[in-house]
Amino acid sequence: MLIADDLDKLLDILPDFVKNPLYNHPNKKFLIEIVMDLGRRPEARFPDGPEYLSLINISWHDLDYCIKKIPNFSGDNRSGIESTLHRISSIKNRKGNIIGLTCRVGRAIFGTASMIRDLLYSGHSILLLGKPGVGKTTAIREITRVLADEMEKRVVIIDTSNEIAGDGDIPHPAIGRARRMQVTQPELQHQVMIEAVENHMPEVIIIDEIGTELEVLAARTIAERGVQLVGTAHGNYLESIIKNPTLSDLVGGIQYVTLGDDEAKRRGSQKSILERKTVPAFQIAVEIHQRNVLVVHEKVDRFVDLILQGSILSLERRKLHVDGSVSINYETSNSTGFFYHKHLSPTLNTQFQSTSEDISNLYGSQNQDFESNLNNASSKIISNSSSFDCNTFSVLKLYVYGINVQQVETTIDALNFAITLTRDVLRADYILALRSYIKQNSKIREVAKSKHIVIYTIHNNNTNNIIRALKQIMHSPLLSYSD
């Protein structure tokens, strides 16, 4: 993996007592940023933590020394060094005077796109997620080069803070043949996005840090015009984007839907539920957890639907090794869900020993109803009951069948029991059901038997019956119960 960072050009703008300790630092190639705050000691930040560079505190003179060596700061308080990828951000006091600088090291790392190279050839729009500093911009820069040079596509970068293609009028060589459109003011990014599509006929638009409602709307407009998007957004997981009212439209948005009585009873849910509103602007989401570890969601629409339902999720984890090889592991994880947000169970991660196709076959397509999924699940579980190695948690997971879920949830709240409701029978510790319903459904009894799930039944939705059943679940041995 080839790394180009032009670090010496960044160190040259710093005072001697700040830059000298870094010239010979053993971890210089891993440096993330340098922080200089008025009246404080300068800090260097590395992946394993910060480190003071000097006993001398930063003065007004030191800050002024740095500021005179770089271009003026833009409206988002950012500047750069021409022909490099470095970014200098300022902190100002109430009078507008700069009292702190954050000097972020910009690197072109050739080879970082190897983990998702296959996704680029799919032609689908890709959304990169991750916390600040995890490497989203570095990854999107290398993706840009691969799309422009290796795949020979017409690529246009919307470079709001000159962070992707570097400062100055000439773009950094790290982006290859891609073209760059600079944004004069951050609040105008959405206009430049639309202008790029209308004026320059791109096949791919690259956007860093989508963060406002107008930018989300522009991204949706571009996607509807058939242009491939590659963008980044702040958020550790796809769930955090769904919960973000500003960014949720990137993955289809969410809305409340009112179900009929029969449909609500069949689903075992409330009448008002959350569902995906429309087609996502991005078909693929990549969570960057570490610089060499990604989680890929190749069907964002299906994944969002499963999250809203509180179902088991299929995760594809990719890891880049030192020798350049990429390993892919398939795992399952319990969605925290939105419908049962009051009773969140710990995330359950278990290594999955089969293939992604097995997961798809086990849980069925999104259009299948409960009975069809249950048919698939019962046959699959019985023949391969050892596929999952589930950890045990102190919070009990309860599946409700044929009973008013809101009533059960309210009762659990009132009793303050450590019970969480689940929409998926396969991950339940117990099943609470109406006796008449459970007698008519042999499949659910078959799954419960094969998975050793205890079934508790009650005659009707009477609150006293529900309370008695919940108390038995909490305090009695694992025996079948009926009122």
From TrEMBL:
CDD domains: AAA (cd00009). Residues 122-278 form the AAA+ ATPase domain. One of its GO terms (molecular function) is ATP binding. SUPFAM superfamilies: P-loop containing nucleoside triphosphate hydrolases. Keywords: ATP-binding, Chloroplast, Nucleotide-binding, Plastid. PANTHER family: KINASE-RELATED (PTHR20953), P-LOOP CONTAINING NUCLEOSIDE TRIPHOSPHATE HYDROLASES SUPERFAMILY PROTEIN (PTHR20953:SF3). This is AAA+ ATPase domain-containing protein. The gene is ycf45.
